[in-house]
């Protein structure tokens, strides 16, 4: 049960529930030593700060084997960074065509992360995805598979659009050809760099109670959940820019996590018991 209002916190030690600066939003009476940090931020900040946040996470967790799920033609870590940090980095994608468009010096794995017969087991210390979760048909199966591919104590970070933001609700309800045209109207994209993939929005919500319960039912510890408010589409609709700005300001002060537009989610597969595990059970998770 969630019993505290959300607020900002910079670092957090899982075991002690210590928070660097601020109050924690504790998620679960039975989980005395576990807390979930819930934060409200402008969506803009999640977009602009993504690379920096990803790199801070990598610095803090110092993983060796890293997977970029749905990295496709745009792997998020450049080859130089991978070499300098001595990462064993793999780009995973369902589409061989997408993977073929990524530079050749990446290790590539063609796999459907939503498949019921998923075969990767305890391969990675850290996996992340950017704009992937909404494209997987079955959210439960997706998170189960991510759980399976992580080593005990491994961490997953996902950045994804969320329901019930109006543009995604519309995208969810529209036939594919119509949503493609609408997307182009509001956010014309470089088709060479960005494809358009069917979106299902299964388990892509902000930090609601239901969503925390869903992720915990897979076995994850939910470490950090940031709800992003506001959407750049609104600024392109005449008359809506000011209204949406005020609405976003209001939601940042009084968050309603049912209407987030984006989310950062950091979850962990529980480590093995002390002494058995390679990884420490104490973990420090930065917030943007
Ligand atoms: C919107 S693109 C995002 C690409 C990249 N992460 C980025 O942010 O630019 C979504 C990617 O997820 C891949 N994808 C979609 N469903 C997938 C699945 N079930 N398993 C693995 N990859 C999938 C697509 O092929 C595509 O490369």
Helix/strand order = EEEHHEHEHEEHEHHHEHE
Q: Which of globular, elongated, flat, extended, rod-shaped describes the shape? A: globular
Number of domains in the coordinates? 1
Uncertain segments are 1-33
Distance between the termini: 25 Å
User: Strand pairing plus helix content: what structural class?
Assistant: alpha/beta
Distinct small-molecule ligands in the complex: S-adenosylmethionine
Total helices: the number is 9
**Helix amount:** 25-40%
Strand content: 15-25%
**CATH fold name, please?**
Rossmann fold
Largest sheet: 8 strands, mixed
Widest beta sheet: strand line-up: 3-9-10-8-7-4-5-6
Summarize the structure.
Helices cover 29% and strands 21% of the residues. With 288 residues, the protein is of the alpha/beta class.
Can you describe what's shown?
The protein has 288 residues and is an alpha/beta fold. The chain has one domain: Vaccinia Virus protein VP39 (Rossmann fold, 3-Layer(aba) Sandwich), CATH 3.40.50. It has nine helices and ten strands. 39% of the residues are buried. Mean pLDDT is 83; it is low at 1-33. The structure holds S-adenosylmethionine. S-adenosylmethionine is lined by residues 70-72, 74, 93-95, 98, 112-114, 130-132, 135-136, 197.
